[in-house]
Amino acid sequence: MPDGGRKARPTTGEALASGEGQTSATADTWRALAQFTSARIALGRAGGSVRTQSLLDFRLAHARARDAVQMEFHAEALGAALGRAGLETVRVDTAAPDRRTFLVRPDLGRRLAPESRAALVARKPKWGARDLAIIVSDGLSALAAERQTGAVLTCLVPLLRAAGWSLYPIFLAPFGRVKLQDELGELLGARHALLLLGERPGLGAPDSLGAYFTFMPRASCTDADRNCVSNIRPEGFGPKAAAHKLAQLLLESARRGISGVALKDTGDGLPLSADRTLRAIA
Question: Residue 20 pLDDT > 60, yes or no?
């Protein structure tokens, strides 16, 4: 045997053909934990790099998140779907004229367009003062607003009506930001304002809905004055469970006359009448 009895090293071509010297993909030892979360853990590696499949999955998730931000909000279609469920809707516009402007000028999404403001002022005497104004907006994910809103509202609205609450029509507001609820709620004289808004997409959650509400909405409200239930989607906080939580928090907010950091989630159940309603529509 050449070279003092040692085995001759294969040529580069022979090594590639046999697979010798190549680094195979290695599974992460935490792989079993991945079944409990959608977070990016236990991705494995190929040498010092991530596996090709992990990289492709990441790029796909990133593309879906970008698409969610740019996606058109089909407010009319959502309004028609809510109408079939027995919920009246009214379209309002913010000061943002289009999506590009909305993304670069967040302030415009926080206030109503002059035409919509005037229209609400004209209809205010007919509606009178009511307990809750609900606003739906695409925010940073039209996908979330279109997928999750119907399931939340068809559960939440009956719960609140069973508790004796009066509601305005559902306001559909493309290009809205969280603080829009303060202007609209104050303009109408609503006791509470609730905004259902598409959240900024995460790499694993392009369709996550957030729900924000304020007691006695007004221009001077800050984020400390509002409560939030987030990650509303089937893979996160399920829409029906989120509706149950929102009803519980809203009823407690009305009872105590507070919202925001002063209002804590105690985990208490709904009043008996509302709890029976929930079981009936579940």
Answer: no
